[in-house]
Amino acid sequence: MPERSDSESRKLLGRLREALAEDSAGQARLDKITKLIASSIGTEVCSIYLFRDAETLELCATEGLKAEAVHQTRMRLGEGLVGRVAKSARIVNTADAPSEKGFRYMPETGEEIYSSFCGVPIQRLGEQLGVLVVQSKASRDYSSDEVYALEVVAMVLAEMTELGAFVGEGAALSPLHQRPAMFKGGTAQEGAAEGHVWLHEPRVVVTNPIADDPEVEKQRLTKAIEDLRVSVDELLAGAQGGDKDQVQVLEAYRMFANSKGWLRRMEQDIDQGLTAEAAVEKEQSTARARMAQATDAYLRDRLHDLDDLSNRLLRNLTGQGSDTGADMPENPILIARNIGPAELLDYGRKLKGIVLEEGSVGSHATIVARALAIPLVIHADKITTEALNGDMILVDGDEGHVHLRPDDTVVTAFRDKTAMRANAQERYASIREKPATTLDGETVSLLMNAGLMADLPSLPSSGAEGVGLFRTELQFLIRNQMPGRTELAELYSHVMDSAGDKSVVFRTLDIGSDKVLPFMTPTDEPNPALGWRAIRVGLDKPGVLRMQLQALLRAANGRPLKVMFPFIAQYDEYKAARAEMDKAIEREKRLGHRLPSDLKTGAMLETPSLGFAPQKFFEEVEFISIGGNDLKQFFFAADRENERVRKRYDTLNVSFLSFIEGIANRCNTTKTPLSFCGEDAGRPVEALCLAAMGLRALSMRPASIGPVKSLLRRSNLSEVRDVINEARNRGDQSVRPAVMDYLSNQG
Structure pTM? Predict the structure, then answer.
């Protein structure tokens, strides 16, 4: 076939627009489109395959193959050359299809007489919708111009599929964004929520992908890119001297915004007949497809930058900003690719749940979601491209599952589960004021974790005896500048006022690792969780630590005060931190400020090394809190941000429980108060086993106190300890099966 000129490509798109504009059913449109493409490209066969479900493609229209194969021929994702195109999101262009790896002959189609094959993915922003295929008897490769023309046509087909132009009978032609969909993600904050989708960044809809006048479209694109460059330059000027990561991202934005190659590719798309916004989206879809295949972290970050910049450019072109004017639906469930802590706090308790495509169990957003007790599911891949504002959605934070537009059976099962949870909470309310005393007379103190003023209203209703951990870094993370000493003192005083006569343990700044302050220069570390963080930062850069200690002393204003230093790995670090407290006390004395009536300083035991600290440490420290989340990842060498390994090791592993028991025994010898803080403290079976190992104080999220207390009050710790010892003696790797069997026999 002779090479196609730009005008001929535009003619094809013009004919496609006429076909799409006709008042006909979706099947009739598809049939006409395959004929148009085949005649324009000059090939005997043109076929369109669409997904009928996430794993199955269906032949939905063809020119050249047997008509009776339509809606009968199906293949799995990855099966045959068509399945390969769909799975890889890459073009397959071959002169000898039968010799290609993975080729599968479909006899019902009559395709045995065709040698050459070219398959192009029909995709939109990373979402695979189907495959456009052309075939011919002659053994030849399709030219680069022909392949490019097919890519442009596939882009238009993707947009029109998104807009519902091909709706018909059968699953493959059912409307998009109306089918039930289930996403399996990861649990970041437990709980269940039913509500309606609220997109943090509403999708841009390209309603007219085919251009009338290419020159006008190129002028629109040039103007939009000029505006984009100005806005990026302004953002970059405002960010200089601030967050290094933010500056790097904006530098990447500027690089892409000034990329001649990016502009040239979009102008070429326009010359082929696309509108400016369709050209931007075509390049964005290509970047998303490359992102899905990229294994290099740096490349993925740069592709993310290009994706974000494309969204900005699309909003410039279409005028579809983040504020669409739509009202937030009843019981909103926030859907986003990712979100920062300040943005999440702006939503506050209006949200019933949160679902993120990215995120991590230790991210700022997760910390805020836990503080607000909002169920959060992370790693829900591609939910932002599937969900629409107002869609019904169910979030199961316990299992990490999200049901979008669920059918009636799923809704019924979900509501039954939440009803059971609600009934259980009512039962827990009856023991709210009762102690967590076991059947054999051991009492365990149950405390709550907090980090925001919003947490504290739940203190009386939760049944907690106090705040076992108040995370002070949240007030720093949500701001763009360092808070002042007076401001912090007022905040900490308000926390103590809200707690009333119940104690509050304030943990000094735990920054570094996955918590980098916006106004501090981040360090480039290969493994930040094991790097310069928490007390290491506080001792190396003591200005912030001293200011925070002074604010805490002033907030106490004659009341008792408990302060805990995070990530103490050896005795000398505790001594150095305590020395900073002593200096702060002396300074407050000189200034004539009122000192706490009783001051206790403690340490978080988050590294195995501190469990083997000298006896002098256990004698000198005034209390210890085991930071279970970090201790567990270091004990098992299993990064809790790594989904492949973080669930591989059980908290009820014999080795881990024996280590916890050793710490409890050392603290008993020196009469040092010991508590356990972390996710496992709020899991009833884990909490029971920790108590059996000698722990008499557990700190957890407020909603967990009722379930933990209920199980403790129905259990005999000495019997549970016997079960654990028997499992250890047998050589069991985990005591979980034995303990669960014991509990089931107890009824």
Answer: 0.67
